From TrEMBL:
It comes from the Bacteria. This is Uncharacterized protein. Gene3D superfamilies: LigB-like (3.40.830.10). It comes from Streptomyces leeuwenhoekii.
Amino acid sequence: MLVAAAVCPCPPLLVPEVAAGAAPELDAARAACADALGVLAAARPDRLVVVGPGEDGVTAYPEGTPGSFRGFGVDKDVRLGPGEGAAAGGELPYGLMAAAWLLERTGWSDAPVEGITVGEELPAPRCAAVGRDLAARAGRVALLVMGDASACRSLKAPGYLDERAAPFDAEIARALGAADGAALTALDTELARELKVSGRAPWQVLAGAAEGTALGGALLYEDAPYGVGYVVAAWS
């Protein structure tokens, strides 16, 4: 059963060494992520599952799977949790690397960790089914859900400025802050793709996992410092 969830953005810039001189711009987001992980620890889960965006389908990453930020110009390695497991799906993708860094930064040792990625093309019903399966894996399950909102919030954004981005992101922030699973499930998949929203599928996995629970939500952070929407929320 799902007992808690933390929702965090997943840009490599979350890691100060990657952001370099721009690192202070995301200090508030990092602090909010730490607070959200604190909610997970307080729930005393039996298992933590990290859910992030992937290429296609569903790919599993066991505890200890390694990842490296060398592709972003930084000699920094991470592992998903404290284990030394081999990666069935290869090294961690960028979204799970950001999660691994957050867990390392906060000293996570409260429960075993595993990771999955869900592809951008995965439809909402399939995402919900994945979430229900995750919630059934242990008596007390917590999710760390990684993903960004639109990448079209400004002229300098990766997807350039799209007038639809701000209202779409506002609804995402409202739904995540209110633990509104129905609203997350109803997100427009095609519009999310056009707005380069990486978090749509992971958030819909969360909605499926939360079915039948009475979790409440809290919005801890919402901003778009680089023209990309970043949201942090906690469900408990």
